[in-house]
């Protein structure tokens, strides 16, 4: 299985980052989304990131040009007809993902691997929407994708060993470190990260300390690059809530109960950095 051409579905924060690192590593990339304006926005993020690298002297102008030349855009899923790998980074909704994977199964060539960047939804269930569950796998990148080294690779119940090996190797070509995990709610990353963030929100909710103090304790005391409340804003509070709900439902254990304050913020539309306000305000 040789991977040369990749379709990335979803041109948001994660999808554009994934498309960027794939194109930088020499893959031909199709960045796909529902509307051209979404794809254009994604391309804009990539252009800005690459320009910053050039300004800092970390990338040659020529390298930026060739990276951008390897990127094409799409709003028609039929463009997946000649790709070797699809990496889906669409909205976190099982019905939408199942429909997408079932369509991709019809369109993509028989040899193509279908990967999902889902942060917590079961790969096994996504795979069940296709007739090639052995070629379905989780490739969970971390935000910001161009910077973070990890790709959590999730094996569904039916994922073939060969498919795992191809995807682990492909992740290395992106200068990432693949880590193998099995398919359980939240995998490893979010099973551990989200309860910590949720606990930080409870700490604020119960008045134990101010938001600044909570973040400062974790930054200076534990050497975390961002405090948990800043990180929650960065990830998106709606995403944090969704993952906590997935853990709560998946394990049926109240230790994963989302903090009421998190629910309140999401209901208010305070979704973090992307909406201009979360635990902190952003201009
Ligand atoms: N896109 C691309 N590059 C970015 C970036 C972005 N959004 N943000 C920062 N960078 C780059 C900067 O350009 C800089 O690059 P150089 O070293 O080449 O100059 C580098 O990252 C460091 O940036 P800064 O000096 O501006 O800031 P920093 O040192 O504070 O680092 C950070 C920023 C990397 C985001 C750091 O704060 C960090 O690691 N935060 C934690 C991130 C984290 O935990 N991510 C995982 C979230 S969970 C997830 O993604 C999974 C999920 O399912 C929810």
From TrEMBL:
InterPro entries: 3-OHacyl-CoA_DH, 3-OHacyl-CoA_DH_CS, 3-OHacyl-CoA_DH_NAD-bd, 3HC_DH_C, 6-PGluconate_DH-like_C_sf, 6PGD_dom2, NAD(P)-bd_dom_sf. Pathway: Lipid metabolism; butanoate metabolism. Residues 186-282 form the 3-hydroxyacyl-CoA dehydrogenase C-terminal domain. The record marks 140 as: Important for catalytic activity. NAD(+) binds at residues 10-15, 33, 92, 97, 119, 143, 274. Residues 5-183 form the 3-hydroxyacyl-CoA dehydrogenase NAD binding domain. Its EC number is 1.1.1.157. Belongs to the 3-hydroxyacyl-CoA dehydrogenase family. This is 3-hydroxybutyryl-CoA dehydrogenase.
